[in-house]
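On clarity, I found the account of how folds are encoded harder to follow than it need be. Since the whole study asks how a given chain folds, the encoding of that fold should be made plain. For illustration, here is how one protein appears when written out as sequence plus structure tokens:

:::
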Amino acid sequence: MHVFFVCPKAISCWELIGVCHIIQDLLLNADNFASMLFDLIDRLSTQQQALVAMTLWSLWKSRNAKLWESTDTSPSYIVTHAKDSLNEWSCM
């Protein structure tokens, strides 16, 4: 939960894509990660669902880069990477 929804970097990412208010509401009653994620997906449009999924992936990759390569990325880079990856994936 922390890596994807609670840490300041994740919160900044969600603010950048405009779903932070939804996540904050869901966190008030979240029991676990799975229920939080599925409740979030249920509240989003199809387009938002795809962007949230790619942002989760980009956050995960960013955390791994920080852990294994000592590379720190900004929230704007994470969101840009998510959008670019989604665009590339959509074109395939």
In short: The chain has one domain: 2-91.
